[in-house]
Design a protein that fits this description.
Layout: E1 16-29, E2 32-46, H1 50-53, H2 63-77, H3 82-96, E3 100-110, E4 125-139, E5 143-156, E6 181-193, H4 199-205, H5 208-217, H6 229-240, E7 246-254, E8 256-258, E9 284-286, E10 290-297
Antiparallel strand pairs: 1-2, 2-3, 3-4, 4-5, 5-6, 6-7, 7-10, 8-9
Helix pairs in contact: 5-6
């Protein structure tokens, strides 16, 4: 006898949107020009999932329309900050379309900078580049704002080691008191509920990016010793937490091993380095990157 089971299906999430809306917004103030090159991803959740369940598209806002709205908002409002631009996008969809229940917007920027002289040189730390500054926003009840940085490539050629770690019969990693510390950083922080923040003030006055570099490198003249990647992540978080409430840091670290050149009659004292990932000349082998991740929250003491 065949037994038939009955199931009840519940839609837990059904959203759609337009990804990779890439454009450049040029703003002119006399002879001075300002550029914002951004990539926007906007996703919507509708009050009904009828397009998903029944194929009824009457409430669906086409993704081409989403793209056009983003471009029109950039034209009309400009992009004063990434945060404000994403808020403008979210508010437009929430206030214009009654069938929209939820908006999630992701904005990332190519950080073009004017050419200028470097006023201060750190003797042992290098900031290679950062590819994007990113911001996350969504509306579900109150407006919650996140922002951050990704692909920030950092290196310090000394003042880093890894010693005193747990060892057993499977341990082959040697202790190091002086090594190259290199990584690619992703950092995301929360502003909490949006209540008329001055995002430019937070970014430029609080100098969050400068805080990250300071925590990583230490003082310009002498640096600061890092006993591990984990402690470096914590140092970054503790300094930035004086400016924001919650911060997540992921450091994709890259290990460098000195090549033994004794059989070539040479002593390699780390004068020349090689990183296969970036195709730089030198004498170090680049192993697979590892990730160090941590989330830290600042709470008021009662």
């Amino acid at each position: 006898m065949l037994s038939l089971r009955r199931y009840h299906y519940q839609v837990l999430n059904c959203e759609y949107g337009k990804n990779t809306i890439k454009f450049l917004r040029l703003h002119r103030e006399g002879k001075k020009h300002f550029v914002k090159e951004v990539e926007v991803c906007t996703h919507l959740r509708l009050t009904s999932a009828q397009e998903y369940l029944e194929g009824n598209n009457s409430l669906v806002i086409p993704t081409d329309t989403i793209k056009n709205i983003v471009l029109v908002l950039a034209k009309k409002n400009g992009i004063p900050t990434l945060e404000q631009f994403a808020i403008d996008i979210c508010k437009h969809f929430m206030t214009t379309f009654c069938q929209v229940a939820y908006v999630k917007t992701y904005v990332q920027e190519v950080p073009w900078q004017r050419l200028h002289e470097v006023s201060k040189i750190l003797i042992h730390s290098i900031c290679l580049c950062w590819t994007h500054i990113v911001s996350y926003f969504w509306i579900t009840g109150p407006l919650v704002v996140f922002a951050g940085i990704k692909d920030l490539k950092l290196m310090k050629t000394t003042q880093s080691g890894f010693e005193g770690f747990y060892k057993n019969e499977h341990t082959t990693l040697p202790e190091r008191h002086d090594r190259i510390l290199c990584g690619e950083l992703f950092c995301k922080w929360s502003y909490g509920e949006c209540k008329d923040f001055d995002f430019d003030c937070i970014w430029y006055t609080n100098k969050i990016c400068e805080c990250i570099l300071e925590a990583f490198a230490g003082p310009p003249d002498c640096g600061e010793y890092s006993p591990s990647y984990q402690k470096t992540v914590n140092s970054i978080q503790m300094l930035v937490l004086s400016k924001v409430q919650v911060i997540e840091v992921i450091l994709n670290n890259t290990f460098y091993n000195v090549v033994d050149m004794k059989n070539l009659g040479l002593t390699n004292d780390k004068e020349v380095s090689k990183c296969s990932k970036y195709n730089l000349p030198g004498l170090f082998r680049n192993t697979q990157p590892k990730s160090i991740a941590a989330v830290l929250h600042r709470a008021e003491l009662k």
